[in-house]
Amino acid sequence: VQLQAYGGGLVQPGGSLRLSCTSSGSTLDGYAIGWFRQAPEKEREGLGCISSVDDYTYYADSVQGRFTISRDKAKTTVYLHLNSLKPEDPAVYYCAADFLGTDCYEYDMDYWGKGTLVTVSS
Fold first, then answer.
1. Average pLDDT, whole number, for the chain?
2. DSSP 49
3. CB of 36 within 8 A of CB of 18?
4. For the chain, what is the total number of helices (H) and then of strands (E)?
5. What pLDDT digit, counting tens, does each position of 5-60 carry?
6. CA-to-CA distance for 71 and 95, rounded, in angstroms?
7. Rounded Cα gap, residues 91 and 34, in angstroms
């Protein structure tokens, strides 16, 4: 599994962005996918997770109601929809995979993708 997060860019405060996570050469079927971010000089932060079971999703309090995670029907792509972006949201955003996982704890993730940079500025 070789993950890649992409779709980052520059967006104005209050704007929206959709990030994608894919794996080259394989689907993401059977994997819990977690989204994380890391801002300069800050620890990596877990944002949310889509479970390998029934695609159940849950989110960190810091992004609850603003960010949503979804998976396409073909199980090839997992999306992170970023809405109402704030000045504190800029970071490198990563996706990670845990085979047959349900909770997306950082230490449980088996595979990590290269991140994509999100910048929020007017």
1. 95
2. E
3. no
4. 0, 11
5. 999 999 999 999 999 999 997 899 999 999 999 999 999 999 999 999 889 999 99
6. 13
7. 16
